[in-house]
Design a protein that fits this description.
The protein has 288 residues and is α/β, with parallel strands linked by helices. The protein has helices spanning 21-32, 46-53, 86-93, 101-110, 123-135, 192-195, 198-209, 270-285, and strands at residues 13-16, 37-40, 57-59, 74-77, 98-100, 113-118, 141-148, 153-157, 162-167, 181-184, 216-218, 229-230, 238-246, 249-256, 259-265. The two termini are 33 Å apart.
């Protein structure tokens, strides 16, 4: 399998399913490094329009006649692309370098300090919060599962030394990550079309937790995860207290290993206070 050390060795990338939120963040990462990007998707969207304006060459035709990509391009695809997609079939027949989206993300992130946020709920918000905290102190790269308001993007294409990534449980994609540290916000049943039953979802998170090399945090209500430290509950090293509404936002006291900080969450709901604690705990635990 091809290996990624930052962008070394990648001459071009072609994304099958480039309009997906995870694929588009990788496309933006590549373009920021001067790597030519082409891609296919079914229909134009605001996101594909943005990618085109940023330099990607896109097509909305799955025929082989429309598949005009460099001979040395790696082909990146998602589980949403059917196995009989003509361009995917052709890439396999030609012996192209083929990687799933999760494989490319893992190889990029694992090359440096990988800080991962997993969970069936809350990972997009928490990873965006974590990226914001860290970016105030040093340039980082981040691959987010949504367009973050603070960045107006789903990608921070900064230096490769530190990566913030979403650990996506769909298709067991997070097993391509070997994080330096991680947080798991929740382990509720989800993607039962992939896992079959709720216990298998938990088993997937336990397998992911076993790949974390450093600090691991688990949110309130998570299943028991070996080696994980809980957060967000009374008595935890990383928690909160005194939630109240002030000026239309949730004000609260953030507790970081004995240090109390007055702060607020701009998003409504107690779960977003817990997400903020998760992001702050992970940043604090790795000394950033």
């Amino acid at each position: 399998m091809a290996r990624v050390n930052a962008s070394d060795g990648i001459l071009a990338l072609d994304f099958l399913g480039i309009g997906g939120i995870g694929m588009s963040s990788l496309a933006r990462w590549a373009m920021a490094r001067g790597i030519p990007v082409t891609g296919y998707d079914k229909t134009p969207t605001a996101l594909t329009d943005a990618l085109s304006s940023e330099g990607a060459t896109l097509r909305f035709d799955e025929s082989l006649e429309a598949w005009k990509v460099p001979a040395d391009a790696w082909i990146i695809y998602t589980p949403a692309i059917p196995a009989d997609h003509p361009q995917l079939v052709a890439a396999k027949a030609q012996g192209r370098t083929l990687l799933k989206r999760a494989e490319l993300l893992g190889q990029i992130a694992n090359a440096g300090i990988c800080l991962a946020v997993g969970g069936t709920h809350g990972k997009t918000t928490t990873s965006a919060m974590l990226a914001w905290i860290l970016s105030q102190h040093q340039p980082i790269q981040a691959f987010l599962g949504g367009i973050a308001t603070n960045f107006n993007s789903n990608c921070l294409p900064g230096p490769a030394e530190v990566s913030v990534v979403e650990a996506d449980e769909f298709d067991r994609s997070f097993l391509h990550l070997h994080p330096s540290a991680a947080v798991i916000t929740s382990t509720d049943a989800d993607h039962l079309d992939i896992y079959g039953e709720a216990d298998s979802v938990v088993d997937g998170f336990r397998a992911f937790a076993g790949q974390v090399k450093g600090p691991l945090f688990a949110g309130p209500g998570c299943a028991d995860l070996a080696g994980a430290e809980s957060y967000g509950r009374p008595g935890d090293r990383y928690t909160y207290r005194g939630v109240r509404l002030e000026g239309g936002v949730q004000a609260f006291t953030l507790v970081l290993d004995g240090t109390e900080i007055a702060t607020h969450a701009g998003l409504p709901g107690l779960h977003n206070v817990e997400n903020a604690v998760a992001a702050a705990a992970l940043a604090h635990a790795v000394g950033m």
